[in-house]
Design goal:
about 0% strand, elongated
């Protein structure tokens, strides 16, 4: 029942990220909401059955779910229902019913690896060791990044070795060791460059992924103490806000360009008016200085009045041409945009730090798993070579 236990634990690691992926951003980019998984009564009953200890009393409900349910969650819950039914059937010795259920598990389902492992076990229990070993090899070939799939190779090698099939066991052990070496190298790459993990973390979590990176993500998601789900939600929300802000920034840039273009078209008129204003102001100053010594010069008084009227008209014309500064509304939008972008980058960095901490905790555990598995494979290979020698 270990496989079904792992499968059920993964079920919760699959549903939760689904709620995170559906986090839309509202139009002002500063508030976000997340859609939760909608569970019908039948969905809830099946989920409770899958989370409980395996019992034959759950069998009718699990069978009915796949026959009747039309829920949007059926692609997930339906596959795990079949997985649970198959595991209970194997426990009770009904390998035919188990294979019937397992054959209906979708190949792109997160349950695919566990279904394939149970299928191999069903053949092993029927005494068809050849077909069981073939399935172990096939699983590892399709899902090389899945640690359970790779461990199946070691089991197949052990089985062949115990049967004295040296020529069949040796290449399987070698294949398992090669897969483990590749996965260990990939894990070390992630340890050296954790930023590569973020894209995988914010994409859909697929339990049947062939990459070591996604398998590590799944292990982190399952660990509730790691707070990776919370970090994922923050990353997705912040990424959506960032996209929204980028679109709004384009709109703001266009508005600023439009205002700037208007200013450029008025630049020549403004320059000419400014020069005329300077000359008129100088003329007024000169006339005032002369009139201070000849206050009765009527012709100069007339010229001063005309100059002052002309200066007023120039100022009115300059005012109509507008200021070179951005309009207050655009200045406010520009300031708010800068604040929002700084805030969202801070949120993204905080979430990434949570992921780095979770990676630091989870990575050694997965590396230790592969080292121990490699030790088992090396031991089996050594015993095999010793027997052949």
């Amino acid at each position: 029942m270990r496989a079904i236990t792992l499968a059920v634990s993964f079920l919760f690691g699959t549903l939760l990220p689904t709620t995170l992926q559906a986090a839309p951003v509202d139009v002002d980019c500063r508030a976000s909401t997340s859609r939760t998984v909608v569970l019908s009564t039948r969905d809830q009953q099946v989920l409770e059955a899958l989370g409980a200890h395996a019992s034959n009393s759950h069998t009718p409900a699990l069978i009915r779910y796949n026959d009747l349910a039309g829920s949007i969650n059926k692609p997930i819950l339906g596959n795990y229902s079949r997985l649970r039914l198959a595991a209970m059937a194997l426990r009770d010795g009904d390998t035919d019913f188990a294979r019937q259920q397992l054959s209906q598990v979708e190949q792109n389902s997160p349950a695919a690896v566990d279904a394939a492992l149970l299928l191999a076990e069903s053949y092993r229990r029927d005494g068809d060791r050849e077909r069981a070993r073939t399935w172990f090899v096939r699983i590892a070939a399709r899902f090389p990044g899945n640690p359970r799939a790779v461990s199946g190779l070691v089991l197949a090698g052990d089985d062949w070795r115990k049967q004295g099939a040296i020529e069949q066991a040796l290449p399987v052990y070698n294949l398992a060791l090669n897969k483990m070496a590749e996965n260990m190298k990939a894990l070390q790459t992630l340890a050296d460059d954790p930023d590569r993990l973020y894209r995988s973390l914010t994409n859909s979590v697929a339990g049947n992924s062939t990459t070591v990176m996604d398998q590590l993500v799944l292990a982190m998601v399952r660990d509730r103490d790691s707070q990776v789900l919370d970090a994922t939600r923050k990353l997705i929300n912040a990424s959506n806000v960032r996209k929204c802000l980028n679109e709004q920034e384009k709109s703001l840039h266009n508005a600023i360009q439009h205002a700037t273009a208007r200013d450029l078209s008025n630049a020549a008129f403004r320059t000419a008016a400014q020069r005329e204003k300077t000359a008129t102001e100088q003329e007024i100053a000169d006339l005032q200085r002369v009139l201070a010594n000849a206050p009765d010069a009527e012709d100069l008084q007339v010229r001063l009045t005309e100059a002052r009227d002309r200066l007023q008209r120039i100022n009115e014309r300059l005012e109509r041409l507008g200021s070179t500064a951005l309009p207050p509304a655009l200045e406010e939008r520009k300031r708010q945009m800068l604040e929002d972008k700084q805030r969202v980058e801070t949120e993204i960095e905080d979430a990434r730090q949570q992921v780095r901490q979770a990676l630091k905790a989870q990575l050694p555990e997965l590396q230790r798993f592969y080292r121990n598995l490699a030790g088992e494979a090396q031991l089996g290979k050594a015993q095999l070579l010793q027997a052949r020698g």
